[in-house]
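Example 4.3 (complexes with small molecules)
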Amino acid sequence: MSEWGDGTRCVRAGLPEPAPGDPFLPGPVFAAPYHLDPFAGQGTSPNGYGRPDNPTRRLLEAAVGELEGGDCRVFATGQAAITGLLLTLLRPGDTVVLPTDGYFPVRAFATDVLEGIGVRVLFAPTVGPYPSFEGVRLVLVETPANPGLDVVDVAALAERAHAAGALFAVDNTTATPLGQRPLDLGADLVVASGTKALTGHSDLLLGYLASRSAELIDAVTTWRTTTGAVPGAFDAWLAHRSLATLDLRLARQSANAAAVVDLLAGRPDVTGLRWPGRPDDPAYAVASAQMRRIPGVLSFDLGDADRVGRFVEAARLVAAATSFGGLHTTADRRAQWGDDTAPGFVRLSCGAEDTADLVADIAAALDAAGPL
Ligand SMILES: Cc1ncc(COP(=O)(O)O)c(C=O)c1O
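Answer. The structure with pyridoxal-5'-phosphate bound is encoded below.
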């Protein structure tokens, strides 16, 4: 598997051995209970009850695990995976380090729930400075961070965390396992939303966690089984089906982002342009050293909320929508959700449209939006 290129790995990921008469990817298995052996009960089959066991889910876990390079457990959403990780590992009196500039519901969960049960929460910007990790149980980073797109050196920070006895986890949502493999870079755990580019069709919610530690995977599996935050069989199957085209989708999204960045960099009516693949971006050096490819997500400032509205309204190929990583180009004015961003700050997620069409559409829409 590992000697193959990304396209081959995605197309083959998690597929069962070929058997005459069988489909390439078996269809979804819809079951709450399964037939049990009347005498032996559970244990004669991996399928006993749908919350802990589902064969469609297991195939998806095999696929994502192959791509991340560890064992994987999928969850109903990215938030279910992240909060599951935090609540599995953290106990009253523990300390956790979280990003100030990452996905904001994680911060809200930390202050609303974790602090409420006696967990000490320290926040640090993705680019640092980081506090001392002495006495810290878990360091969770998000790189590239959403929505500001700062990047941190995963290997260096993992080493610091381990030297202090802390566990180190990376939110790999924006990069996807084709963009970077945090477990190879020294992380103990990967968490991510599979709702975004991983599955990429804007039609399902998914989360996952991956690790090479059987102990951590066991603990997380117990958490998931007892809290029940599992995806249904149909979503798991759709996700697996979508994974096969991840390489193709990311290639087009990234090429589109590069072209859009070239356009925006030359426009005086656009400020604060960020994309880790742009040579003069502050994240470029670390991103190019650590990432295998750069995602199709960029950000910039259009001055105020009204100008963002005029831009999106004028664009034919840019939809106003939150989330990112899908086939359709979307723009999200993050301040409307409570992110600590300027009123005109836009996260643009490039889709899989033709590059020339997208660039022309965005240029025309900016013209239509009027001057800064
Ligand atoms: C970086 C990051 N992590 C986690 C999540 C949560 O994922 P979900 O919406 O699937 O719960 C998101 C969602 O936007 C995200 O951007």
